[in-house]
Design a protein that fits this description.
Bound molecules: adenosine-5'-triphosphate, magnesium ion
Keywords: ATP-binding, Cytoplasm, DNA damage, DNA recombination, DNA repair, DNA-binding, Helicase, Hydrolase, Nucleotide-binding
Main location: cytoplasm
Protein name: Holliday junction branch migration complex subunit RuvB
Radius of gyration: 24 Å
InterPro entries: AAA+_ATPase, AAA_lid_4, DNA_helicase_Holl-junc_RuvB, P-loop_NTPase, RuvB-like_N, RuvB_wg_C, WH-like_DNA-bd_sf, WH_DNA-bd_sf
Strand content: 5-15%
Number of strands: 11
Distance between the termini: 27 Å
CATH architecture of the largest domain: 3-Layer(aba) Sandwich
Catalytic activity: ATP + H2O = ADP + phosphate + H(+)
Length: about 350
């Protein structure tokens, strides 16, 4: 399996898909499904600011791809009735790029800075001052004769998004008044999202089919919406257009997305770990070779979800399959498997506590 097709359950989206997603984005906070705590906190921040007639605190959103950061940024602007300016970290290569954006903001405007962790370092300093004092220092001239001219800018609200909050320098993180941590969604929340999307797409989605798709969507709305489109295609071509449970199951098995949302690569990794290495422990590169992939592919593409789902544990001695992995793959663990009766007493193979 040299080339693996990752598009069906990848949390990332290409440009075409992003265009499709626009139509499915909820526009108001009340239509945003799930993330209850974030929604409630944010609603207070926004209402409080509106009451005082001031721009709200800067908001940082952190969370994996496809969990709704861009959606929420747009909702913030809509709820405030404020204009929205969109830019991204990679677009800000020099501090001048940022100065150009900041100095042309209107009062109360929402500036969405996506992938904020990828912004150029020199621009960060400028952003600190802008966030705190609504001022930019424009440098005029070069060398020893250069001077900084302070320029007042309109009060604005920065909405930053990052998939890697850990990469943000502390001074930047500290300047956000509110941080929204976006979590993976529960299956019942994904079901709601799917029903809402089906309505917008005029697709006739049965409740049990919605539950089936939700369960395979890896806690991610983007994946849920994508699987919905695949099932709809299948229903249109092979069925009578109705998205029933049977149609959903057939479509998803055709795309090799199993009941837990594992795809072909995930299952190949598990299969090798269980059958060839008796559940481990086994080193990453050995495991990768046995499925014909680069170690990095296994580590970056397959492993995070397998670990998050509790099928694989990373231990100091290598990767180990959990009892859930044996059960999910329909195999029986040998008595000496790492998680069988003879599990090491030192607990070295205990499953990781968190994701
Ligand atoms: N809470 C939600 N309710 C309904 N739909 C959602 C929700 N969150 C995300 N979606 C849908 O999932 C898709 C992806 O969401 P979005 O683009 O906001 O993710 P993102 O976090 O910005 O991803 P990335 O990190 O790749 O930019 C969109 O089509 C959006 O409509
Ligand atoms: Mg986004």
């Amino acid at each position: 399996m040299a080339e693996h097709e990752r598009d069906v359950v990848s949390p990332d989206a290409d440009l075409d898909e992003r265009a499709l997603e626009g139509a499915l984005r909820p526009k108001r906070l009340e239509d945003f499904v799930g993330q209850e705590r974030v929604r409630e906190q944010l609603s207070l921040v926004l209402r409080g600011a509106q009451r005082r007639g001031r721009a709200p605190d800067h908001v940082l959103m952190s969370g994996g791809p496809g969990l709704g950061k861009t959606t929420l940024a747009m909702i913030i602007a809509a709820e405030l009735g404020a204009p929205l300016r969109i830019t991204s970290g990679p677009a800000i290569e020099r501090s001048g790029d940022l100065a150009a954006v900041l100095s042309t903001l209107q009062e109360g405007e929402v500036l969405f800075l996506d992938e904020i962790h990828r912004m150029a370092r020199p621009a960060e300093e400028m952003l600190y001052v802008a966030m705190e004092d609504f001022r930019v220092d424009v440098v005029v001239g070069k060398g020893p004769g250069a001077t900084a001219i302070p320029l007042d800018i309109a009060p604005f609200t920065l909405v930053g998004a990052t998939t890697r909050a850990g990469l943000l320098p502390a001074p930047l993180r500290d300047r956000f008044g509110f941080t929204a941590h976006m979590d993976f969604y529960r299956a019942d929340e994904l079901e709601l999202i799917l029903r809402r999307s089906a309505g917008l797409l005029a697709a006739d989605l049965d409740d049990d089919a919605a539950a089936e798709i939700a369960g395979r969507s890896r806690g991610t709305p983007r994946i849920a919406n994508r699987l919905l489109r695949r099932v709809r295609d299948y229903a249109d071509v092979r069925g009578d257009g109705r998205l029933t449970l049977d149609i959903a199951r057939s479509a998803l098995s055709l795309y090799e997305v199993d009941v837990q949302g594992l795809d072909r690569l995930d299952r190949a990794v598990l299969d090798a770990l269980l059958r060839r290495f008796r559940g481990g422990p086994v080193g990453l590169s050995t495991l990768a070779v046995s499925v014909g992939e680069e170690p990095e592919t296994v580590e970056v593409v397959a492993e995070p979800f397998l670990v998050r789902s509790g099928f694989i544990a990373r231990t100091p001695r290598g990767r180990v399959a959990t009892p859930e992995a044996w059960a999910h793959m329909g195999l029986t663990a040998p008595p000496d498997a790492a998680f069988g009766a003879g599990a090491p007493a030192d607990g070295a193979a205990a499953p990781a506590a968190g994701p």
